[in-house]
Amino acid sequence: MTYLHNIGAYFLMIKDMFRKPTKWSVMKTLIFKDIDDLIIGSLGIVAFISFFVGGVVTIQTALNITSPFIPEYLVGFATRQSIILEFAPTFISIIMAGKVGSFITSSIGTMRVTEQIDALEVMGINAINYLVFPKFIALMLYPFVISIAMFLGIVGGMAACVLGGYSSLEAYIIGVQTDFIPFHITYAFIKTFVFAFVLATIPSFYGFYMKGGALEVGKASTTSFVWTSVVIILLNYVLTQMLLS
Amino acid sequence: MIEVKDLQKSFGDAHILKGISTTFENGKTSLIIGQSGSGKTVFLKCLLGLFEKDSGTITYDGNIYSELSDEQKRNLRSEMGMVFQGSALFDSMTIAENVMFPLRMFTKQSKSEMQDRVNFVLKRVNLPDAHKKMPSEASGGMQKRVAIARAIVNNPKYLFCDEPNSGLDPKTAIVIDNLIQEITEEYNITTIINSHDMNSVMEIGEKIVFLKDGLKAWEGSKNTIFKTDNEAVTDFVYSSELFKKVRKMYLEENQ
């Protein structure tokens, strides 16, 4: 019953997010602040993880290719496919659910605990629009983060491949270019936009409707991470089935 | 003026407000007092529209709140100022930005006009040099004064304060009380304060509403509270030895 109530409350929150818009001059500032906090602030960790996971994918692929009949360029091909189709959009989104999601939940949750949200509502401000909408707009730049993750993942794979002596640079580059299907990029970005929406709204929901004190803020952050991850994984399956099968 | 008639509110099986009726006049400081759990905060939040009442009517200067359109409710709320118990300052903004916030949201003033108004209001609450500080760098008393400045910056018609003295030393508490009373008279605001603080009751209670178990048990002023025979009020107000003595002295002097 609680799950049904939460699902209903979540969709009502989405509706309220677009009602009674905040004054543009104020909203503009909030959007830029959220772009800085959520997008720019995530680039470092995304770049670091992408580069090294790209390298690991390459090493594992290369080590599992033992047959001499399999061409050397397959390492680059497999790395590209893994990173573009799955690693960058999905794996990075799970990491972002932890980083960005818990930041959103704890910052909004703390505002709830310290009556800052009540203060907004007393002033007649639509607190959901004021707090959640800028995060939603800021995360529409999330595909930019994923593009960087894709690029650095492939570069990290290339570095690992060449430095580890698993194949030549030329073979890796040929592999990366082999049988490239542009729709795979479209598919990855469609997923990314959907995940961006989930990353903005589910953590906001858990922060906005939390009750209690500091301890509950921590609990809400954990719950929000769990549910954001679960929804991302489920939507990943559904979207893959719809778009690639 | 705010008129409340037969206000009732429950949370599940808990009947918190059991039919409260009273009136709060313009230019007067009204206090709602009562023990913890008597329904003071719920009453205040119902007046503010933060809690949906179950029944009864709340009228703001002749306008029944529940009959207003969303737009009218929003306009009415922009005429309200609220000082929260924990100040509720936006911790991502400086003190000046906190005070300027209602102006940015609800007026079309230029930046310099807003700046002038912020300077004036911060000066009014005796914080002329606090503009650039963050709320976390301010003391409890300063935070309360900033909260008052934010509440009055847009010239509200109604000012609500939820335990504005909680956590403050007695001297600062008196400063805050006097500030609220001065502002109420100066701008002819309808001010309603939730308080536990008996000093506030004696200092600024032009009208006092005593709540007990969700009901209005007594209504009067700082002058009549000394003379009342209402046992619930005397038990609550004169629970300390000091206040018992003060009351005894007052009654002896006025016999």
UniProtKB/TrEMBL annotation, chain A:
Coiled-coil spans in chain: none
Domain of life the protein comes from: Bacteria
Chain segments annotated as transmembrane: 38-63, 83-104, 139-165, 185-208, 220-239
Gene Ontology CC entries for this record: ATP-binding cassette (ABC) transporter complex
One Pfam assignment: MlaE
Alphabetic keyword roster: Membrane, Transmembrane, Transmembrane helix
GO terms assigned for molecular function: phospholipid transporter activity
InterPro entries on file: Permease_MalE
Keyword Ion transport assigned: no
Name used for this protein in its record: ABC transporter permease
Automatic annotation (TrEMBL), chain B:
Keywords: ATP-binding, Nucleotide-binding, Transport
Record-annotated ABC transporter domain positions: 2-238
SUPFAM superfamilies given in the database record: P-loop containing nucleoside triphosphate hydrolases
Tree of life domain: Bacteria
Keyword Transport set for record: yes
Classification via Pfam families: ABC_tran
A GO term for molecular function: ATP hydrolysis activity
PANTHER family reported in the protein's UniProt record: INTERMEMBRANE PHOSPHOLIPID TRANSPORT SYSTEM ATP-BINDING PROTEIN MLAF, PROTEIN TRIGALACTOSYLDIACYLGLYCEROL 3, CHLOROPLASTIC
Name by which UniProt lists this protein: ATP-binding cassette domain-containing protein
InterPro entries: AAA+_ATPase, ABC_transporter-like_ATP-bd, P-loop_NTPase
Organism: Oceanihabitans sediminis
